[in-house]
Amino acid sequence: DIQMTQSPSTLSASVGDRVTITCRASQSISSWLAWYQQKPGKAPKLLIYKASSLESGVPSRFSGSGSGTEFTLTISSLQPDDFATYYCQQYNSYFLFTFGPGTKVDIK
Amino acid sequence: EVQLVQSGAEVKKPGESLKISCKGSGYSFTSYWIGWVRQMPGKGLEWMGIIYPGDSDTRYSPSFQGQVTISADKSISTAYLQWSSLKASDTAMYYCARGQQSADYWGQGTLVTVSS
How does pLDDT run across A69-88, given as a tens digit for each residue? Predict the structure, then answer.
């Protein structure tokens, strides 16, 4: 099974900061990676798919990069609405999808 | 507008059975895979399994194989997740989501509480 890790597990930042979250896969997943945002009590929301493609309607301050085993989600200028937990998800394995453990972005 | 609307919260006792639902609208229900995701209290997301309503092709995560059953009724655009004998450890929020790779639309979640 492919295992996913994320770092950091918690990130404290201020409005306007540039924020980077890293996701690593235990083996190569090409570009088959998505990023989601989840706020307390709400369903996850798709931000990025295929490692770097921005989902329709998602602000351009969000961007994704990487391939193989290392990926990053970057928020170029953190906004108040962005304080949430972020998950990566691999979908390289045939219907054996795996989420990362999550990164909580909170207010510094 | 694409929507996935899930059934309401449930409170059950250990050993009871349960079937929760996820109704799709605003798109061709039979053309997209629907997956189920578990989120235990205060924890992360766990992918459980997925179904293609067009032909009911179903795949399970090894962690959930034999523990739950995923089904769909395409005539009413609804997918289901069911348990035959609930355990306290099944207490969680359950989400349905559309997509066989990344999940672009999600239901609002169904909270299942199992307690004696």
Answer: 999 999 999 999 999 999 99
